[in-house]
Design brief:
Length: 228
């Protein structure tokens, strides 16, 4: 599902974030710095969703939520760039990515580490479809605290339905497992296409059926589409 949210004007921050500031805090290597140069035209710290800006109390693990606008140079953006920004900024972040008149939202599920509360753990990145920039925006969901709001902002980005009594963290972990199994499925299909021996084809087909059954159990979808 693709959704753009209408962030309150009171939460507007509107500061250009120099890449050098991210380098100082995120400590990227040469290759990641090159990605910033080639792929990122500008980063704007657009909104700060906090108790004092949207009148919603903080939760234990979500004191604030940041909204960053990233304008691309050529339409491509590697996850390494976002991981560097998330490493540099110790708050949950939602990215609105802009290119050629369109916009998409990208985010990772970001939470403090159980082993070290000073560090943050990030999941895989989830993204919406591209939408025209002038697409009507939805009001922010009404929630009890910023932790609940963070969940409501992330849920539209996760491409699988919530299962019964499934927490956001469990849903994210299941989505990551689905991605891994889809990659495994693609590798098995590639092996099957290359195999010439009949006996080996039978073995690989059995392996393929097992993998499809695992994906069906994870997604609840009988027909699995690669690259979903």
């Amino acid at each position: 599902m693709s959704v753009l949210f209408d962030y309150p004007k009171k939460a507007a921050f509107g500061r250009v974030l120099p890449k050098t500031k991210i380098y100082e805090r995120g400590s990227p290597g040469t290759k990641v710095k090159e990605l910033f140069v080639r792929q990122v035209e500008q980063i704007v710290w657009k909104y700060k969703l906090a108790p004092e800006t949207i009148n919603v109390p903080a939760s234990k693990f979500v004191p604030e939520i940041q909204i960053f606008n990233i304008t691309l140079e050529n339409g491509e953006l590697k996850e390494d760039v976002l991981r560097c920004i998330d490493k540099a900024i110790p708050f949950p972040i939602l990215y609105e990515i802009y290119y050629n008149g369109d916009c998409r939202t990208v985010a990772t599920y970001k939470r403090p580490s159980e082993a070290d509360s000073a560090k943050w753990v990030v999941s895989s990145y989830f993204e919406s479809n591209w939408l025209p920039e002038d697409t009507p925006r939805k009001p922010l969901p009404v929630t009890l605290n910023l932790g609940g709001l963070y969940e409501e902002l992330l849920l539209p980005l996760i491409p699988y339905r919530v299962q019964k009594k499934e927490s956001l963290q469990v849903q994210v972990e299941r989505a990551e497992l689905i991605r891994a199994r889809q990659q495994d499925l693609a590798k098995i299909e590639a092996r099957l296409n290359k195999e010439k021996q009949f006996n080996r084809k039978v073995e690989i087909n059995a392996e393929l059926r097992t993998m499809k059954q695992q994906l069906e159990a994870l997604t609840g979808v009988v027909e699995v589409n690669k690259g979903q």
